[in-house]
């Protein structure tokens, strides 16, 4: 009775065993087919296509896809062939069913896609495909490393099961080695191709010497190399402390400038560190103002420093908006390598550009000069001649080049003798107010010229002679003569307006007086020749500072200088220009003194006084000898303030009248309220401190604040409180002689209090 059920059970067991055996046989055959197929293929695209086809056929599915993981971009990608060639599909590796399988490393069987929470329906909406079922398995190497996922869609009959998942996992594991190897080979080939392209690109770029063309080329190549939307190369302008970018605008090239510490590029330049920002608007260092101005939308930024071969940062290269995602570490490496090579080309191009600029500048200077400039070789042949020289000589430019100087000046023996003398002695020589016969025949004109011959030396070699011709006929003669005795601006005005302007006029001006400290002692130490040489150097520096700000040099009074701002023509910022001049004079003096001390020469000290007031300006003297100058109380006060610099151990003192006229912001302190000699009304005086550095005057603003407090209590007669404030100044800056002077003054006043104290100091010396 029990034998029949037993036979049924045995039969069922045998059937299961046979089925299992068949499954294993099928699996083995499938894996062998996989191995055989991928072994015969060379490229990653071929392997992916074959595996996709085999997977779909074995699992009886409508569609299959193999996604490989790109660790550089955190994306899953697959490839397929289309009529237009290979097509790559990419998506973030943390999205959808495939993303979940990659994250967890666990395969999924989904027989109702739209019911699964991780399913991304946007893909169907984009492609028009209808996904019902999904079988997704991780792709692992033999070491268990996850390199991607395999995904099968819509079984043709029935539903996917666990057996299907096991089969898919076995197939992908079998193919993983070939996939990994093909990936590696592909990356190696791509890297080699990129390196060859990079070498060719660098070689091509470094051959470019035109700076504008090179900059535009570099930006275009960087954009293409990084697959970015835009690239910009910033070069540092050390003179202006700015970063400069040149961009194509229409048919030309325009410049964009901004301070070298501003924005992402400024941060990279100052720090020397690469910045890679995947989301620009989430980074506080990003300035969206440029987007607002241009209408461009910045998503991602990669910016690297531009470093030359000496290790100096000379700029920054910036790429914006990489297509397909943020910039990668590989992008950083490629851009750094690219800019390292480009830096050499840039410096070469910049050097060429600088040389070309200098050449063009020199040519422009020569051609714009009203004086003739002629160069001669050692045989006396004319090598170059500017337009003014040809005009003075009465010849066409092209007819002068190559001619002998002896032929050209055969009617001017004095000039010819000067040229021959310079050639023979290699020393400069001049002739003043010479009659030059121009043209090639007796009908030529005669002009009055000043002639100077100078040896032409290049790298210590005598290469010929430079001949300078100054036409001083008519207005030029007048201007040249007058400019030697008065301010050039005044001379020009006199030439334009004639003698009628030589009367006296009343005007508001800022007067500047300067004087060398201890000049008598200095002259005794130097001797006559060295004193004259020192004064010439000193006056040259000081006059350059005055003329740079548009001041009028009135006269030299021994070692003193008198200048005015607001004459002969007033300006809105005369007081500011005067103060800036005084600051520049002290700074120039300090630089000059450093050179003198290094040469074993004594340093030179100087005091400067400034005052703004009504003055009378005009010609003063006799009909035979006149002098254009300024007179008035305002002039006298400026001179008194210059003298007071000694008493207050200051370099620049300005009156309250000048201080109130200032439009700019300067570091000053009110020194005192004084009654100068010869006056009855007090005037406030201020010390200008802007020429100081942190080394020459540490804790400057702290001292200014404490000094102000000290002066306030001093004027109230609170001697102890005033002394305490001035002592705080000395602790902050022990070398502040003015604070030390006030400590002594307060101690004296405390010991002998005045009967009527108003805080005003009476000066007894000029």
- Overall geometric form: flat
For the record, the count of structural domains works out to 5
Report the average pLDDT across residues.
Answer: 79
Overall CATH architecture of the largest domain: 2-Layer Sandwich
**Spans where pLDDT lies below 50 across 5 or more residues:** 248-252
Head-to-tail CA distance between termini = 146 Å
| Beta-strand share of residues | 25-35%
Account of the protein in words:
- There is one protein chain.
- This protein has 766 residues and is of the alpha+beta class.
- It has five domains: 22-189, Beta-Lactamase; 207-356, GAF domain (Beta-Lactamase), CATH 3.30.450.40; 369-481, Beta-Lactamase (2-Layer Sandwich); 505-691, Nucleotide cyclase, GGDEF domain (Alpha-Beta Plaits, 2-Layer Sandwich); 698-760.
- Helices cover 46% and strands 27% of the residues.
- The protein has 23 helices and 26 strands.
- A hairpin with a 5-residue loop joins strand 5 and strand 6.
- Helix 17 (528-548) packs antiparallel against helix 18.
Key traits:
single chain, 766 residues, alpha+beta, Beta-Lactamase, 9-stranded mixed sheet, 6-stranded antiparallel sheet, flat
């Amino acid at each position: 009775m029990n034998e029949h059920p037993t036979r049924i059970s045995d039969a069922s067991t045998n059937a299961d065993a046979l089925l299992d055996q068949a499954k294993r046989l099928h699996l083995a055959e499938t894996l062998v087919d996989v191995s055989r197929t991928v072994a015969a293929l060379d490229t990653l695209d071929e392997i992916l296509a074959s595996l996709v086809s085999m997977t779909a056929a074995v699992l009886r599915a409508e569609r299959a896809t193999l996604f490989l993981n790109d660790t550089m971009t955190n994306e899953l990608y697959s490839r397929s062939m289309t009529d237009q060639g290979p097509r790559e599909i990419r998506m973030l590796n943390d999205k959808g069913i495939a993303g979940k399988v990659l994250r967890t490393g666990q395969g999924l069987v989904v027989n109702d896609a739209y019911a699964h929470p991780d399913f991304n329906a946007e893909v169907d909406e984009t492609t028009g495909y209808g996904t019902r079922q999904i079988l997704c398995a991780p792709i692992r190497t033999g070491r268990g490393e996850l390199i991607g996922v395999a995904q099968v869609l819509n079984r043709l009959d029935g539903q996917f099961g666990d057996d299907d998942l096991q089969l898919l996992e076995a197939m992908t594991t079998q193919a993983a080695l070939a996939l990994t190897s093909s990936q590696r080979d592909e990356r190696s080939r791509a890297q080699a191709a990129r390196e060859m392209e990079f070498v060719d690109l660098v070689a091509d770029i470094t051959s470019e010497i035109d700076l504008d063309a090179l900059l535009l080329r570099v930006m275009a190549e960087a954009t293409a190399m990084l697959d970015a939307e835009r690239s910009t190369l910033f070069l540092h302008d050390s003179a202006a402390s700015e970063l400069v970018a040149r961009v194509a605008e229409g048919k030309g090239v325009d410049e964009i400038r901004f301070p070298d510490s501003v924005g992402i590029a400024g941060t990279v330049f100052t720090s020397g560190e690469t910045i890679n920002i995947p989301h620009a608007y989430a980074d506080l260092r990003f300035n969206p103002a440029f987007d607002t101005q241009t209408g461009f939308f910045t998503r991602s930024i990669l910016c690297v420093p531009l470093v030359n071969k000496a290790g100096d940062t000379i700029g920054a290269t910036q790429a914006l908006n990489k297509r397909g995602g943020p910039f990668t570490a590989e992008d950083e490496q490629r851009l750094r390598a690219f800019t390292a090579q480009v830096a050499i080309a840039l410096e070469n191009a910049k050097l060429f550009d600088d040389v070309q600029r200098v050449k063009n500048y020199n040519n422009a200077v020569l051609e714009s000069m009203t004086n003739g400039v002629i160069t001669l070789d050692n045989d006396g042949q004319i090598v170059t001649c500017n337009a003014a020289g040809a005009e003075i000589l009465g010849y066409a430019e092209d007819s002068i080049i190559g001619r002998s100087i002896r032929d050209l000046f055969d009617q001017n023996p004095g000039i010819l003798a000067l040229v021959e003398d310079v050639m023979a002695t290699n020393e400069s020589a001049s002739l003043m107010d010479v009659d030059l016969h121009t043209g090639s025949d007796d009908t030529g004109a005669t002009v009055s010229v000043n002639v100077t011959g100078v040896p032409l030396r290049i790298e210590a070699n005598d290469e010929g002679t430079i001949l300078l011709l100054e036409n001083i006929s008519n207005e030029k003669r007048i201007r040249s003569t007058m400019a030697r005795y008065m301010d050039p601006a005044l001379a020009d005005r006199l030439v334009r307006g004639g003698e009628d302007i030589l009367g006296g006029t009343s005007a508001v001006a800022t007067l500047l007086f300067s004087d060398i400290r201890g000049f008598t002692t200095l002259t005794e130490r130097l001797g006559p020749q060295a004193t004259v040489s020192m004064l010439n150097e000193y006056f040259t520096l000081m006059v350059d500072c005055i003329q740079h700000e548009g001041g009028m040099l009135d006269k030299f009074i021994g070692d003193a200088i008198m200048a005015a701002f607001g004459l002969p023509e007033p300006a809105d910022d005369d007081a500011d220009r005067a103060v800036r001049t005084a600051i520049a004079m002290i700074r120039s003096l300090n630089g000059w003194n450093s050179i003198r001390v290094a040469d074993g020469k004594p340093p030179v000290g100087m005091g400067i006084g400034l005052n703004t007031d009504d003055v009378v300006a005009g010609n003063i003297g006799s009909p035979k000898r006149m002098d254009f100058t300024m007179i008035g109380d305002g002039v006298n006060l400026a001179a008194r303030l210059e003298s007071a610099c000694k008493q207050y151990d200051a370099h620049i003192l300005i009156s309250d009248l000048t201080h109130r006229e200032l439009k700019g912001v300067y570091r000053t302190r009110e020194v005192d309220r004084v009654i100068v000699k010869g006056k009855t009304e007090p005037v406030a005086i201020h010390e200008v401190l802007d020429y100081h550095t942190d080394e020459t005057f540490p804790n400057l603003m702290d001292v200014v604040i404490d000094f102000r407090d000290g002066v306030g209590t001093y004027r109230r007669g609170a001697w102890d409180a005033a002394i305490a404030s001035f002592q705080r100044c000395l602790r902050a800056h022990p070398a502040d002689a003015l604070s030390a002077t006030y400590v002594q003054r307060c101690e004296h006043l405390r010991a002998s209090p005045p009967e009527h104290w108003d805080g005003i100091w009476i000066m007894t010396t000029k």
